[in-house]
Each structure stands twice: as C-alpha cells, then as structure tokens.
Amino acid sequence: MYPKFVSLLQIVAEQKHVGAVVVTCGLRRVWEKVLEREGLSENVKVIGGGRIDDSFVVSGSVKGALVDRLHDVYDMYVWAFGDSPLDLDMLLKANQPIIVVVLPINASPRLDITKLPIVNLTKPEFVYSILGGQHTHGGLQVLCATEMSAAKLLAAPMRNAAIAGPDLREAHRRVGRYLALEFLADVLGLEQPPIQHVLGHQTRGYKLVHEQQTTIVALMRGGEPMAFGVSDALPLAMFVHAGDANDIKLHHLEGQLTVILDDSVINTGKTVVEFVQHIRKLHATVRIVVVAGVVQAQCVSGGSLNQTLANYPQVHLIALRLSDTKFTGSGNTDTGNRLFNTTHLA
C-alpha cells in the first residue's frame, strides 16, 4: 500500500464520524493481509470476493452500487479513491472522486490538471476536508517506563554526576535502544521477515515495521546519543540532525510513515511543540513519536506540551521517566555540556 494512503487511513481509523472501507474486484484475502500488516484490519474492512463459496463477485458496477446505497440509504457523503477503469462508476457517483496516479519524481502530470486539479494526501487542508472540520483524538498518547526496574537501572548513570562524556553518551544510547524495543514496537508494530535458523531451516524473525519509511531526528545536541540508540533498533531508518525545526525539510518526510524526534530532556516542551507544528505544516498524516530520557511531569499532565500536541493526530510521547522536579540545567548540570565535556565553556 502506498505510504500516503497508510498514513491517511491511520488518521481516519482514529475518527468516530468518518469510516473507511476497501472495495476490491480482486481477492479479499489479499487486502485483509495488507491491512493486517499495517495494523488497520480492526478499523478498515474489505468488501471483495475471490472464492467460490463467497457467492458474489465485485465488479465496477457493484462499486458504483455501493456508493448509491451509502447515499440513498445512509445519506452519507462519500469520498472515493480509484486508479482503474473498474473504479469509474464509483468515481462518477461519489461526492468527492479522487483519481490516483502515481508518477516518478519530477514527471509531468498525465491528465489535464485544469479539469482534474492535483491534490496531495499529506497536506493539512486536504486531510481536514476529509474529516469535515471535525477531528477526534484521545489526547497526547504517553508511554512511560518510570516504574520499570530496567528503567531505574538505565537512568542511574544518566543521573550520576561522576559520569560524563563518552560514558554518559553510551548510557543515553542504551536508553534510546531500550525505549525503541520496549515501546516503539507497540506503537509501530512488528513484521516477520524470513530468516535462516541456526539449525539450517527457514523460520520467521521479528523486526520493527517500515524501517526504511521511518525518519529519526536527533534534536541537537543533547538528543543525538539517544537517537543513535533508536537507530540501533531501526538500522535502515533515515537519520537527520536538526538544530531547530526549520532543519526538517519536506524531502525528509515524503514517502515516510513515521518521524521519531529524540531529545534527552523535555522541560517545558516548547522545542518539541515547535518541531511538531513545523512537521504538521509539511505533512499532515505522518506519525510523530517523541522519544526522551526525562520529561517534566507537569508539561505532560496539563502543560503546554499536552495541550498543544493533543490537538494533533498521530502523536506519541515515549519517556524513560517522568520527573516532578522543575529544573533547567545550566553550566555543570546542563545535559548537553555533560554529554560532550563542555561544562568548562558554560
């Protein structure tokens, strides 16, 4: 499935007032497997045949009839996406028909764009038009390891004033890898690629899904060591260094399903909010996961971070621990200075 459609369907799946269904003239089971792989099978259903005992065949006219029924019986407003002549009847009857054309980069449009204007599935205005001005969200989704024994062990060297430089960077890297394996696996999902078993036969392994369609962003400079740890768990993911939000460009997001923002410490959340807002202006549907070592508890429970990010779909926060301490490091206590042995310059 095209990444832009996966991202769009993930947002639609969160809504209570908008639904999605795949209608196929092909094999229903193929689409069910695709949706299952993308974690969408619970929310996006498939209408299709393919087996003798199904007792029906989906044709182009059947697709059109389904749109008629949605209009006449349920009084629904229908968006239809199609890329085949078999989709024409459905497209003609839909309130908003979208012809899907996939072109190579920099290729000229094949159709008359004056009659069929080009739309981008990742643009905020397009996504919000589908949602009809309404958006359902469950607030900022927070995953935290504070009370886990592994988290306490991993946090100890990060809090130890005697540890700095390479040893501290390694501690942050271990935390990044741990958070990726413990929590990102639940957020992103797993796939099972074939592997060669040590006993000589073929079996199935596990890895995080869509590695190559993931962008890891190290918020410089404190977030770099932790970002390297996340990268250890996603070795095929794109890696980007960002001093501020404007360092994230559209080409870092195009074709991607997930962006992971890594920082060592989140106090007020101001920097993270700036990054999320900037990314959402460029790409309305990409999943955003913020990974941090320490997050100030108030900014999550009711502060600006929670209040702002709760308005955006597909945003998660993963933290090693939440802290009730309101403290902004400086000089010898600044995490960036400790990580890179520059406390004497502060």
Q: Would you give an account of this structure?
A:
The structure is a single chain. Helix content is 35%, strand content 22%. The protein contains 12 helices and 14 strands. It starts with a helix and ends in a 7-residue tail after the last helix. With 346 residues, the chain is an alpha/beta fold. The mean pLDDT is 85.
**Rg over CA atoms:** 23 Å
Order of helices and strands: HEHEHEHEHEHHEEEEEHEEHEHHEH
Strand order of the largest sheet: 5-14-13-12-10-11
The amount of beta strand, in percent, is: 15-25%
Largest sheet, in brief, is:
6 strands, parallel
Shape annotation: elongated
Overall pLDDT level: 85
> How far from one another are the termini?
50 Å
Low-pLDDT stretches are: none
Share of helix among residues?
Answer: 25-40%
Number of helices: 12
Total strands: the figure is 14
Classification by helices and strands: alpha/beta
Q: What is the subunit organization of this protein?
A: single chain
TL;DR?
The protein is α/β, with parallel strands linked by helices and 346 residues long.
